[in-house]
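ingest -> validate -> predict -> emit
validate: passed (alphabet ok, no gaps, 656 aa)
predict: started
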Amino acid sequence: MKTEPKPRKKNPIKQVPSNSSTDQDWTVQQSRELYGVSGWAEDYFDIDSNGDLTVTAKTSNGKPSVSMATIIDGLNQRGLKTPVMLRIENLIEDRVLRLNNAFAKAVADANYRGAYRAVFPIKVNQQHHVVDSIMRSGQTFNHGLEAGSKAELLVALASVSSKDSLIVCNGYKDEEFIDLGFTACQLGYQCFFVLETLEELDLIIRRAKHFDVQPLIGARVKLTTKVEGHWAGDSGDRSLFGLTTVELIGVVDRLRDNDMLDCFRLLHFHLGSQLTNIRNVRDGLKEACQYYIGLVQDGVPLEYFDLGGGLAVDYDGTASTEPHSRNYNLQEYAVDIVETVMKSLDAYGIDHPVIVTESGRWTVAPMSVLIFNVLAVSNFEPDDLPEQIPEGLCDPIRSMLETFAIVGTQRLQESYNDALYYRDQLRKLFSAGKVTLRERAFGENLYLKIVKEISQRSADLKRMPSDLAELNESLSDIYYGNFSVFQSLPDAWAIDQVFPVMPLHRLNEEPTRKAIIADLTCDCDGKLDRFVGGDGETQRTLQLHELDSSQPYYVGVFLVGAYQETLGDLHNLFGDNNVASIRITEDGEVEFVEEVSGDTIAQVLSYVEYDPQQMLSRFRAKAEAAVRSQQITVKARQEMVQLFRDSLQGYTYFEE
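emit:
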């Protein structure tokens, strides 16, 4: 799209255009490169010739694609206003299929004599529809579930249908937790108790005798191998979970003393949630294999080897060891695991175990997209200077005018230093009451014009001074999105997780604005200011389009299916989003499988111990008192009470 330069007022001082014009039409390929789509989207998302983002699903009839514009239209028709958490059911099925097929191929190619079993850690996304989709998609592969609490174990007991699927119980366990697991054992399900402490073992032994059941016991070993990234604390000597070597031998001896050593069937370890470097995977697995070998040599009849989670998601699309990426693909991950276990155990003549992985993040991250609309924009565009400069301006402003007149004829760094110095002098004079508010406003606008031109000229520099590199960020727009970071993207705030963010339409137009995105909360941390860049570098601003008052502007945040939905909090009492689960049919149609309305204000208030009906009664009484004192009319009282009642049932987010 070509943009025409704005008309200029005649002025002896050079004016800087607010937006750069483009010499050629913008293409969707440029948008792909700008937002790094080919890196993080795999083959799930792309851009069509109309400039709309599309989602592609694998079906028995090919790979139909549907535009996000079509999906958003369907959401609006069903009254599911943004923000919406969109779950794409086809992508869950595809991930389950890819995971199991990758290990099946690795097992077959290596002539591995054991099997593979996947389990999904419920904590990664506990939503009912998500767990059900995984169980349905993985039924052919006997896909299992991992539970880390009593509530999650109840989910597993209700969801697992095949008795060849595994239920792996991690975390700290009380008597009720263990008793629930024994009910699964009595029903013929393979429910493993993974020991985190020696105290748990005593409880399991005691309850096993009560139920007269031979339990399936595993032990989580604490490896010394250290990994990189956010979850390094899950590895090494100081990791929070797992048994030391001494404790592991204690488990063996205690089980042998109780004639229950045959129950010890699984060895478990976990290096971290997002393993970016395949070398960490191999190194940790080699160490764990030595524990497995040592236990078998000590008479433990191990049959299952649980590697925990760690299969990483390439959030930034760089295929690197950066914290938000990975330097390997799924097939390489599967092959390295199978071959490492096989070679390590073959050297000692030990049978190949059933390999178990708990790949949660990788399985569900791509399926969910947070969709929100932009409500408004705040920018730092300077106004044009008047044709006639006012007389009697203070010294700092006159000095800034001189600096503005010669920007580009001297070093940009020097111009920036001068402008910054004179602006600070102006502010000191204003604080001392020596310049007027209008003078201050004139000077601030002039400063913006200077740094705006410096910023534009600095793009041509071969070596960017650090001060100038920060100008783009300080001059970027603020786009206000209809969502809460704390509710929908808590990891972006808590651990600086980078998620792909991009517009969902107008991608055949050049996005001329550089922006950060602010949410609806009254919090300086309620923003997105770290973005995936097309060059692989994390960017502090995102290029977006100028808003068009004739149509909404929609933005999507991708790869948010892992952890985000249940880690969110109620900052400013913004509740759960509307949720829609869709399926793309073989004919390329969108089927709305499930629709869940987001929290109403009344529901959110009840979470923090308010009684909405009592609140309504109190407000009604206040309005009635105002009628009695003749402050308002009876009609006004009715309208106020009705507004209060309607608001209680309304969406917590911005509504048109």
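The longest helix spans residues 89-110.
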